[in-house]
Amino acid sequence: MVTARSNGNKSSRIPALGLRAVLLILFSILVMLADARTQHLDAVRQALGAAVYPLRLIVDAPSRLFTWADRSTVSRETLQRENRRLRSERLLIEAELQKLTALEAENTRLRELLDARERVGSRVRVAEIMSVDANPYRHTLVINVGTAEGAYDGQAVIDADGVVGQLIEPGLKTSQAVLISDPGHAIPVEINRNGLRTIAFGTGEIDVLDLPFLPNNADIESGDLLVTSGLGGKFPPGYPVAVVSSVTRIPQEPFADVTALPAATLNQVREIMLIDIEPPAQDDSNAAASPATETSGDG
Amino acid sequence: MASAERGSTLAMVASIIVAMLLTIMPLPDAAAAFRPDWIALVLIYWSMMLPRNYSVGIAWGIGLLLDVAHGTLLGQHALALVAVVYLTSRFHLLMRVFPMSQLTLTVLVLLTVYQFLLFWINGVAGVDVSAASYWGPVVSGTLLWPVVAIVLSGAARPRTRRA
Fold first, then answer.
1. ipTM above 0.85, yes or no
2. Nearest alpha-carbon partner for A144 in A283, A273, A297
3. Residue A66, Cα to own-chain centre: how many angstroms?
4. A29 FRET partner, CA 20 to 30 A, in A217, A230, A244, B91?
């Protein structure tokens, strides 16, 4: 339709062009406002994301091919060696697991004694990273699982070592996840050693998290493990997030200067896991408290 | 004539797809800071050589795709691309007679406008980015412009000659 019209008045090219440009720019501003303030455009974003999906597949193809070639050309000897190593590892892990089952049973018993609610069961889904995002200003990545497989907004993303981030834009077949090192991301954590709660902010550097709200006299030292506290309602509790790398206490300042190194190697992961948690429906007080703690972190 | 037009349309679509691939291709962190705005370069070339009334509309649609691919505010790249394509189409007759050195300088200006619009929208939307990181794509894009122009003119010409 547009084509036909433009062929009709080719002589008056410039005014029509200017008018269109101005209209489109105004429309862009409206779209941006709508996108920033409301959720109505998420469907549009998903549809356009589906159009970009084949391109992502093409871009991802060389690395897939390389992995495939790499896997299918290993020598028999290497495989045998690896197999042996894996067997011995499995034996060790099984031994550990036996202990764990006993501990888990004991834990449930003790929790029942304490009349505490059982922890929310969580299911885990494995996903693969398709690409890290082209935008250098944000730490995001694209994974190959979408709403068709049950991914949802805000779902926690972990890898074998610790928390990686959370989903921000679940598409139909692919989803975008934000890393915990993104400058706009904050995650509620607690110190594993003593249960001290705080919030870890991303800094924009892949290997630094910032903990700005710890008072100078807080019981924290470098080497402390930070785990998710589960208070934000998005991350299940107890997953390792980071290890405290430096604590600087300046006497005049109210807060100590604490940084931590993410437990997951954020720029090297290829396989990740998505954790399904059932949203705690009856636990209203907790849910209401968690956004408050998150927003207080932003301000 | 009609098939010549179809040939260059084909080249245009293919070059835009390739530019999109180059845009979403993962790069090491150091190189990603200097990733040129491939889409902007390609659209500047085509709106200079084949200005159409609907080219701003196409630029807008591609900009939306770019926004989704980058995860930025929907409409941000679209607005910047519309502005750049409009400026190019407006001055395409002038730009066509420029020698390559002068044309490259013009492209530098256009890319700066493009990045400035992105920078400005980020500022209004409250996305915190250091101003220095906007210069990488401008510099690399300007340096790559002659290459892009030669490759694209090569892509368009054989088809038009055959027609």
1. no
2. A273
3. 26
4. B91
* CATH, residue A195: 2.40.10.340
Determine whether the interchain pair A21/B86 forms a contact, defined as Cβ–Cβ distance below 8 Å.
yes
Within 8 A of A6 by CB-CB distance, chain B residues are 52-54
Residue of B nearest to A176 (CA): B71
In a domain, A9, yes or no: no
For chain A, what is the domain count? 3
- Structure confidence at residue B62 (pLDDT): 92
pTM of the model: 0.59
* Residue A110 burial (C-beta neighbours within 10 Å; 0-12, 13-18, 19+): exposed
Segment among A130-144, A182-196, B93-107 with least mean pLDDT:
A130-144
Q: Please tell me the predicted confidence (pLDDT) of residue A42.
A: 79
Q: Which domain holds residue A36?
A: 15-71
Percent of chain A scored above 70 by pLDDT?
Answer: 83
Same domain for A81 and A67: no
Regarding whether A262 and A201 lie in a shared domain, the answer is yes
| Min Cα separation B84/chain A (Å) | 10
Contact B79 A29 (CB under 8 A): yes
Chain-chain contact of A59 with B24 (C-beta, under 8 angstroms): yes
- The partner residue sitting opposite B56, judged by closest CB among A24, A32, A137, is A24
Asked whether residue A84 falls in the same domain as residue A183, the answer is no
